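Quarterly update, task 2.4: zinc ion-bound model.
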Amino acid sequence: MTSPRLVDTHAHLMDPAFDADRPAVVTRARAAGVAAMILVGYDLATSRAAIDLARATPDTWAAVGIHPNSAADAADADFEAVAELARAPEVVAIGETGLDNYRRFTPTDCQRKAFAWHLDLADRLDLPVIVHNRQADADLRAATAGRTVRGILHCFSSHDVEFLDHMLDTGFYVSFAGTLTFKNAQPLREIAARVPRDRLLVETDCPYLAPEPYRGRRNEPAYVRETAQCLAAVLHTPFESLVDTVWGNASTIFRISAEVAA
Ligand SMILES: [Zn+2]
């Protein structure tokens, strides 16, 4: 019997939250059927760490970028270094980047400039872009207007159907995190049910946003299973079939293939 091949498309496994037990976390992910992980950087140091960890861990890949909340702290040289890192063979995506009107650690102009820079880099290297959107639906529409984007809206949280439809038309895949499982997330589950199956992804965004029943604890890639189970229930689809679909989508957008648990 083959176990379903889960994929965590957004894991910050380089985060210090995992320093004490990272190998055990990876082992638990494998035991839970997680066949592949995308390790996502959020500044220069974590982008470099994502590549190093991907190099050392089978069936993991890296994404490099500077998070909108870190963009104000990043020097021009940091952006240049990220662009250099992006050429490493382990790198399968640019990000995470995006727009954040919730925390606003970074002035809006600076966020927009950094986001446009990531979109251009992704275009140039023919890589998908991983996009963080916190209460920035309108800004994101404006920033991507008139272009086709091969990208992922990570940790999707908008309840706006029209925004969803527009971003699907722009070319985006839609990734759901543990927030999908929260008791008060019925509006988000209704949105998830509208996403075409060939655009669906799942992720943990660990160490943040652990799904039920782990909510409030440190999140880890093994828990992507809970989010996938929730999504299967939302779609009235057998779990194995949903996992197969998501696996196919992840292989397509990130151009990855994995040997583990095949
Ligand atoms: Zn993230």
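Highlight for this quarter: The radius of gyration is 17 Å.
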